[in-house]
Write a structure and sequence with these properties.
6-stranded antiparallel sheet, 19% strand, 473 residues, 14 helices, 21 strands, homotetramer, 8-stranded parallel sheet, globular, TIM Barrel
């Protein structure tokens, strides 16, 4: 399997976090899936992703004190693998896991995704529960070791028997305690220990993907791995776990899209992300603040040369519509972004080629927000054929261009980043030359949000506003 | 002018530094140009570049104590612009500057380049010598300011009258003292002060390019600007001077290739380099040590997505053949790289698409070195149509691929980075898939250094050795 | 109680670590105590300190793989307090804890110390075991809170009900899970979580000191607290736990000496160490390497102004005699320090005023080592009345002076830090003036290791050698 | 000479900077000296210090653009030594230098100080002007080298002929160009280059002190040397120049007090400061803002163990009374500190033992400010016999104590650091014990600003206010 085939376009979907935090349950997921199937699927929206702590009993019940209750009970199978909390996901009982929910979502013509934390549960390590590990001479791991020794490839750090720290002692089972690294933790979530870089650790990840494949999972958002930001001196300490995850996906036989969080991703690891993952978050959590949108312009400039088929720098979820419902008393709100800011967000995300993961509770979507999500012209800029190019960026304004190599369509977006109305122009041919982009020499330009025609890609823009043009042929 | 047209291929040429240090003179340059015209031009070698301190009287005369003699006399014209040292460049007298030498080189069908330091001579600032600056209302600078205000573009930092620190007082001439920033210095060379970010500073750079264009300069290597490494907290303090240089080149009317040094370039500024320059050094000074070649593999991985037409990450000069002649007693030597290491160097530089600037004294070139420089198959990998892709890199081995989009030629290079003979293979299709590259499915592979045929891109390689394959169609 | 009265002189004693690592048992401790009582007590040696993991079952049994076995069973009482491993400390059974061993040591006229790790056992947090916590209105904690609000003192960070994260819910018991911070871990030992800064956390430390006082503990070496070096951006993250420990000692009613590890201590926290502790380690672990001794000269210079009664910068244990016995096969050895280096070590530690904690297995002490430990003249420099002053330090040599304010005795030590024999002199009066020290104008100087007389404090010294002089009155 | 005898008490005086910036002239200095002699001398105020750029022609004439005009003419003698600007200091003409002004100040019973910048004028280096340097075999430098080789002392970095970079070539004079380091500059002032670490560099500093001694200078404030803050990775790059300065003072035969700026001084260099200097700035420039006063409490805590006879951590000048006069249009003002803040400043500076350098224009002093400066009780705390001890410091309050070892007087100061009225108490004996200070058990406490009696050292304090108590015997 070629992982770049798993997501030929930047994924579009819905994620439970922005509205539900840790409180999402099966009914919420089904209701949102129903809405997507009915109203958004035809525009390309397809992933339904259950975000953090679906395995944690009582998640969200002490929200004023903890976002993630430490040392709480996590639902787990006999191989130290987390299972859905049966109270919130009743269809998961009797070993069914997420399979029934996944089946339902697939029945709607949609795809199913889950969030996981890097590592193995701390509770498993302290309880010395087993992991699924077969040591037979013809098993997958030995084959893997063989491959590795021949190609010398895929990974800069290979399994080496002598450095392995996980040992099977006297024929007894390998347990979570053998592969859990007690000093590899997440700075903001107490659930897991990192997995050591050894064959038994790989076997654990293999067993996870085997389980998820059996559930029909199509998309995994793995957290605490893109930037393990508790260790400022070692922000890429999860490097070997990224490789283990990618390898386990290849072995499981199912084309599972791999998304890495949290950001900001490390630009000097761009090649590593591209080799092993489909999406990687290039920003800290993004919320409905203009400052969050504004800083994304610099991040998109930084990552613009790394948008390719199957490889998507990720600008994070869309905090649009109704959000914050599960974040505690008084947190539910409509997005704080203005209409102009929302168009700016959608325009930048689309011309840049970011994945689009809606954060809103979809059953509460208003007409305006729906219109943002269903503009086929804007969404059509989202293809690897449209290699994005920033034309310029100052404190006050920015412009981007993209040319669809297949269709020949040329796009130009102009943005007013300042707090005042101002004229922004991307008409100067030198801008395109300096950016290595084709110079548009069109007689007219169609603005894709309004349908208006312009004679050049320039306009008077409101504060934080934008125009997105398609040049006439 | 589109700066990306100035260098449609990664530049190839000769640079005086590796052999002459600061001691190069006119006779040396002519002799090397003669050799290039006679023996290398037909293979694409064309630039003849005079490196550092061509303007410094007595340069190299105190080499045991200083590489660059502080406070020494620098040859300078009436507008604070440096001129060739007439003792070393006798044809430059009477205001001719580098024009006669340039004419000679052009007469050979070659191109002429010079090295400059960022900034304006300290001696000019302390002597308060004038700069060329016209304040007429229809002058270039006012026009520039007008352009800037309209487009809001090209530069994140624009001229703003209120923040300008260079002032013309009471109609008197603007001098070097007005634009030289006394706290902007180079950490390793004492010649210059940085130029302030103001219209008068731009005028100085304009006057430089006007002069260089009049000399027929085709290529400028500007130093202390790509990474102003004296300031670890502010390594890109020359940002505005990069922009000024690029703008001055546009204005001078001559397509002068712009090369920035020293490295390592800052990956987070990739877009800025690409917008304003043609080459930028991605490494510290590279010499004839295996460790220097080895670290280049990581740097090429880092920069591989930024090789485009007119935009070339630069792996630095080729320390091949006879080098070190001007570095003091006992420094002249033949390169310390083994034959295998030299092929590895050439192969990596070429498949990556780096510029090639030979450091050797060409009149002393031996047959082996000449053969390295004249392998048309190897050199043919150097085109932006061949977008480079690293397939893998471990401590022991690496592989790259490139596919010429025009011709369809597919290249694979394998490298043994270890100190022992070992088999290295790039035969696994998954490697190509993960790298987003076309999978070669050829029946045979021609090794470009030896002409031998292989059935797959794998081989037993000597320590530090390589193979460069072209797949059969 | 005034904590500065607990240790009017820098403590002298024995610590089990350098010989036993984690394997020390009751018999070892008793044997060493017997030796100390018989041979060293009369010279001031009095503390017998049991170092790390006395509570861990099977400690040292997987030494080739782990120094500290993760997730292993830790002996613990009903209040989440660690107890001695009954296999290694048989007298501790039936709730006796360290009391029997302590009684034995006290019966010899010696003092008893233990090592602890900052925090509360991870196993307690994951098992939700209770802590000892009384909420009665007249209890110690309320009184404490009252005191704090009045004085606003002792601690820069005070208990504030609103920020407390440990809560008693509905009258149920407070457990380890309530006070254990899941993101506060030790980078090199997997046993504990840090304790949160709240009243219940204070109660836990109070309960610890109550227990230790009941055992008769005289000295606590608390680890992972002086420099919590897993967090390079926050090396003093245990600040509030230092304060809690100090407060708990005051409350327990027993004058327990408090020693903080590991080093290097943070010079900018000097006042905080002095306010709350008796000893703090100013170096990483020191072993029997000359480089370790050499670097101590710079550290002593750094800390010389902070040696006061009850406040001792700690140069770490003395790796003399037989060491390494518990560190695995083939690790037992006699110290690698030469005789000259050993005298240099003892001289520097003593004139600086460091605590002296012997690392050797005492039952194996040879005559030479014994002579180092029983030189009354050298030991007599170790008093806060002898404020240490470095006279000079170069790459090759150093000199220190100290003047006993009570007796008027003046000491000068000279050190040859180089690898060659050389003359070192501290005869120049300007050295003393510049150091703010009394100028010795004696007619003769007695060298304290040899008894020889000198006319001035200068001598030809062997490599790494020293002289320690007392000036004649 | 013992440098610690030069300043047996923390110096008190006036400095021209806070009022005059670079514009101070002879008349200003004389007028302030007259005032000091008439009104302040009897309280201990004695130094009159001329601050920065007394040597710069036209200093202050382009204030809106530059604080320090780059490349402006600096008055200089034939040995590259700066001289007073004759326009502002008319008595300095004909080679008199500061001698006439110094004589006048001495005639008033006061002492005379000047500010200098580390290094040698850039204009001297670029002009290759000579330095005073005698190479005779019996000269001072040879003697110095001899001393150094014997004692191996005073300096960690010694002169070593082989590493010297300043050379006398063919019997010609040594010039500024030989000793000026072109890469050692000040980040905020363009006048100087640092001096290289060599014998000729020492000779230059010797010639400076010889000149200053001939002028009768009593006090030197050397700038850009305590923390050469342009180089965040090397903030103590002036280390060898501090040693050269100290050595030159010893040689000049005049007891010149040495004060080092700017701050913040480096705590890890405390011993080096104490060995070579009398004062060193522990803060950035301090102005009349409460935030500046507030941060000084932490700095005083940090440095409290380093206040000794002849060694004074320096809290910077007192921005009281009328200040800002020379800083440009509209800058002259009365201090922005409230009366309570001013008392807090004076109390902290005095109980800590800081030097006191008044920044006000004294001829404009009002009665309130004068009363602050002439409170003998407050000033009497300023003696090395009063070793300062912080008792506690929280976000809201702080307390200090000091006990005069000679007189037995005990002082306690309490401070309200918050913005609200609050009770602050330093009555708890444990505070004194923890700080290693004598516990005051007095029956009454005299408040030194008001003369009121208190029963304990506690009071209700206004925002930013303080009380300074002396305990009854």
């Amino acid at each position: 399997m070629n992982k770049n085939d798993f997501a030929p376009l930047p994924p579009m979907g819905w994620n439970s976090y922005d509205y539900y935090d840790t409180t999402v349950d099966e009914a919420h997921v089904r209701a949102n899936a129903d809405y997507m199937a009915a109203h958004l699927k035809e525009y390309g929206w397809e992933y339904v992703v259950v975000d953090i702590q679906w395995y944690a009993r009582g998640a969200g019940s002490m929200r004023s004190q903890y976002q993630y209750i430490p040392y709480s009970h996590l639902e787990m199978d006999e191989y130290s693998r987390l299972l859905p909390d049966p109270e919130r996901f009743p269809s998961s009982v009797n070993g069914a896991g997420f399979r029934p929910l996944s089946d339902y979502i697939h029945s709607l013509g949609l795809k199913f995704g889950i969030h996981i934390m890097r590592g193995i549960p701390r509770q498993a390590a302290h309880a010395h529960t087993p992991i699924k590990y077969e040591q037979s001479g013809t098993g997958a791991l030995l084959a893997w070791k063989y491959e590795q020794s021949i190609t010398g490839a895929l990974s800069a750090r290979k399994y080496d028997g002598s450095s392995s720290t996980a040992k099977t002692i006297d024929g007894t089972a390998v347990t979570a305690a053998d592969i859990a690294d007690p000093s590899s933790i997440c700075g903001w979530n107490p659930d897991m220990y990192g997995v050591r870089d050894c064959a038994e650790g790989q076997a654990y990840y293999d067993s996870l993907m085997e389980l998820y494949a059996s559930w029909g999972v199509d998309y995994i958002k793995c957290d605490d791995i893109c930037n393990t930001n508790i260790y400022p001196h070692n922000p890429y300490s999860g490097r070997h776990e990224i490789e283990m995850l990618a390898r386990a996906i290849q072995r499981c036989g199912r084309p599972i899209v791999l998304s890495l969080s949290p950001g900001p991703a490390l630009i000097e690891q761009a090649n590593h992300y591209k080799t092993h993952a489909n999406l990687w978050r290039i920003t800290d959590d993004l919320w409905d603040r203009w400052s969050d949108i504004l800083q994304m312009f610099a991040r998109c400039e930084l990552w613009q040369d790394h948008v390719e088929r199957g490889c998507y720098p990720d600008c994070d979820m869309l905090p649009l519509g109704r959000i914050g419902g599960g974040f505690g008393e008084g947190q539910e709100r409509s997005t704080n972004l203005t209409h102009d800011e929302q168009r700016t967000l959608m325009t930048l995300w689309c011309i840049f080629g970011s994945p689009l993961m809606l954060g809103a509770e979809m059953t509460k979507l208003d007409a305006w927000t729906l219109s943002l999500l269903t503009n086929r012209d804007i969404l059509s800029m989202r293809t690897p054929e449209c290699r994005p190019r920033q034309l310029f960026r100052t404190a006050d304004a920015a412009a981007w261009t993209a040319c669809n190599e297949k269709t020949g369509d040329r796009y130009v977006a102009i943005f007013n980043l300042s707090d005042k109305e101002r004229t922004v122009s991307a008409a100067d041919p030198e801008l395109y030359q300096a950016a290595g982009a084709a110079v548009p020499s069109a007689q007219s330009y169609t603005e894709l949000w309004t349908g208006q025609e312009y004679v050049s890609p320039s306009a008077v823009l409101p504060p934080h506003g934008c125009c997105a043009f398609r040049a006439a042929r």
